[in-house]
Design goal:
Layout: H1 3-21, E1 29-35, H2 41-51, E2 61-66, E3 69-72, E4 80-83, E5 96-97, E6 104-111
Helix pairs in contact: 1-2
The structure holds zinc ion.
Zinc ion (ZN) binds near residues 73, 75, 79, 90 and 93.
């Protein structure tokens, strides 16, 4: 099993635990995942599908939220920042991208509010 799949299985377990604790009907829930760095949303969805197979979380709706990359600037004072581009806001030089230790993380489990369209 790849470390990523293992990590995703832990997230699936977390989703199920959280749903039980908060009495969330998983069939109505949406799972929000944060995706870091170069890991793609598609990879994340595929991993979730694989990791949740034969569990209560199988077939859940997934929303992926992309997090910016993290950088550290060695040109000025070692400023660390997060963002879409590598330019240091302090000195304007190109900062070095920090390698991500994790590819994705659970953001939250949200129950889809069933908003029936009606005009009052
Ligand atoms: Zn700088």
């Amino acid at each position: 099993m790849s470390p990523q799949l293992e990590r995703m299985k832990a997230i699936v377990a977390q989703v199920i635990t959280q749903a039980q604790r908060d009495s969330i009907d998983l069939r109505l829930a949406t799972v929000h995942l944060i995706v870091y760095g170069n890991f793609s949303s598609e990879q994340t969805r595929n991993l979730f599908a694989e990791a949740s197979r034969n569990t209560d979380a199988e077939g859940l709706s997934i929303v992926t939220e992309r997090a910016g990359s993290r950088y550290i600037c060695w040109n000025c004072c070692g400023l660390r920042f997060e963002g879409e581009d590598a330019m240091c806001s302090n000195c304007g030089e190109t900062a070095m991208e920090l390698p991500e230790k994790i590819d994705f993380a659970l953001s939250r489990v949200e129950v889809a509010t069933t908003t029936q369209p009606h005009d009052g």
